[in-house]
């Protein structure tokens, strides 16, 4: 069960967030704020304490807090984002992490290692880590060695099609995995109960398990039906403004 969620309000500079899909247009700030309100309300329905951080205009992508830290049951790992424009975001998260973890349970990924939380998928005590444009071999090496120190394990999953690992694969507990694209046939995921997501709905492979619920993005009927069929209660949240800059449901929070 998760007890806590950390989010950061989107800043006005969100409109210049990094994107691989400029054809989707620029996010509408007012609507992004409304969608963020809905996201927070959805989280509250899942019986967690939500910490809402102030918008940070220095970093257009700073609402995507997932990339700044990985929180495990044993420790918090401050990441080192793999793109210059976002590198400083990780240390901005530190004061908040200190409210939840003592200093000796806070670890750091250090240059030349890079790692973003969007590349980390937790399955019990094991963490799959995407080897991506943002997360490099050295970052993964440091990350796994930190995990091992706390009795946790990790393994690398190379990827080429997606920004982050969780852009295309997400664990929703009970051995259920939402998978799309290059992850469908990866041997490391062979033993999961796979819910295959079509290319048309690929964005919705990024759903989040939150205690008794799965939060699903609005506008993806097949994924919604599959998740319901798997027995979950669902909450639908519209994240269309965040999608324009490659952000999904999971990117918008730290959950622990
Ligand atoms: C970026 O390119 O870094 C942001 N525009 C999107 C970050 C998405 N984060 C995530 O998947 N965890």
Describe this entry's structure for a reader:
With 256 residues, the protein is an alpha/beta fold. It has a domain at 4-161 and 238-255: L-arginine/glycine Amidinotransferase, Chain A (5-stranded Propeller). Helix content is 21%, strand content 24%. The chain contains 5 helices and 15 strands. The protein has helices at residues 29-45, 89-98, 137-149, 221-229, 240-243, and strands at 4-8, 49-53, 69-71, 76-78, 106-108, 120-123, 126-131, 153-158, 169-171, 176-179, 193-196, 208-210, 213-217, 233-237, 254-255. It has a 3-stranded mixed β-sheet with strand order 2-1-15, covered by helices on one side. Helix 2 links the parallel strand 4 and strand 5 (106-108). The chain is globular, with a radius of gyration of 17 Å. The structure holds citrulline.
Short recap of the structure:
The chain has 256 residues and is α/β, with parallel strands linked by helices.
Keywords:
single chain; about 260 residues; L-arginine/glycine Amidinotransferase, Chain A; three-stranded mixed beta sheet; 5 helices; about 25% strand; binds citrulline
What is the rounded Rg? 17 Å
Oligomer: single chain
CATH topology annotation of one domain: L-arginine/glycine Amidinotransferase, Chain A
End-to-end CA span: 8 Å
Layout: helices, strands, pairs:
Blueprint: E1 4-8, H1 29-45, E2 49-53, E3 69-71, E4 76-78, H2 89-98, E5 106-108, E6 120-123, E7 126-131, H3 137-149, E8 153-158, E9 169-171, E10 176-179, E11 193-196, E12 208-210, E13 213-217, H4 221-229, E14 233-237, H5 240-243, E15 254-255
Parallel strand pairs: 1-2, 4-5, 7-8, 10-11, 13-14
Antiparallel strand pairs: 1-15, 3-4, 6-7, 9-10, 12-13
Bound molecules: citrulline (CIR).
Citrulline (CIR) binds next to loops.
